[in-house]
Amino acid sequence: MEGSLGVRKGAWSKEEDDLLRACIQRYGEGSWNLIPQRAGLNRCRKSCRLRWLNYLKPAIRRGNFAEDEVDIIIRLHKLLGNRWTLIAGRIPGRTANDVKNFWNTYMRRKSEEKEKRKEAMIPHEVLKPQPRTLSKISLRLGGKQTGEYHNSAEQCSTEAYAAPPLQFPENWSDNWLESLLEELGSCTCEGNGSCCSCTQEETLRLDLWDEELINATGT
DNA sequence: AATTCTATCAACCGCCTCGGT
DNA sequence: TACCGAGGCGGTTGATAGAAT
C-alpha cells in the first residue's frame, strides 16, 4: 500500500497510531512536515495531520450524534453552508469530518424521504401567478417614495432599491449564537423570507464570519 | 450459508490562503 | 511582486461492517 513516492497510504495500523501519538505528545501539534520524520512514519504530512485531528486527538467524541447536536448542525448549516470546520468548532468533541459525514448521510436520507413524499403526492390544482400593482411605498424600501414601478435589473440596482440596513439586537456581538438559534428557532419560511430575515442571510453570514475572525485573531 | 445491498466513516486529493523570502 | 512551502479546508472515494435477500 505505497504511493508513487514510496509513501504509505490507506488505513493506519495500531503501531503507526502509537508512533504518531507519542511524537505529538513529545513535540506538540504543528510542524506537520517534520512529524513523519520525527515519528519514524512513512506517511505524508497531510495524512499525519488528518489522522491526528480526526481520530487520535484525545478530546474527540465518538458515537452517534445527540439530538441537540443534530439540531445545532442543521441550524448552523442553514446559516453557514458547508463550512464544516466552523460548524464543528461549535460542537465540542466533534470533528469537521464527522459533521460532514453526518450531514451527507442525513441529507441523503432527507432527499430520499422527499422523493417518496413526492411520489405519494396527489396531483393538485396549480395556482398561476397573477399580475399585480405594487404599492409605491414598500416596507422593503423603508417607506421611501420610489416613483414608478420598475422591473429591469438595471433599474432595480439603483440606490433607491437598496435594502435597508439590518437591525441587530444590542447584545448581538456578545452572544451571537444564542441570538441566532433564537431567530432560526422561530423560522418556518424555508428561506423565502416570509416569516423572518432569511433573505438577509448573506449579510448575516458575512457578519458571522467577521466575528469568527475577531475571535480567532483576538483583535 | 452465501451473496448482494446499503450505510458509515476513514482517508485521499486538489485547491486555496497565508506567511516568509 | 512573484514564488514557494506549509497549513487547512471541502469534496469525493473506497473499505468494511451489518442488514437484507
Automatic annotation (TrEMBL):
Report the superkingdom from the record. Eukaryota
Name this polypeptide is given:
Uncharacterized protein
Q: Which organism is it from?
A: Bauhinia variegata
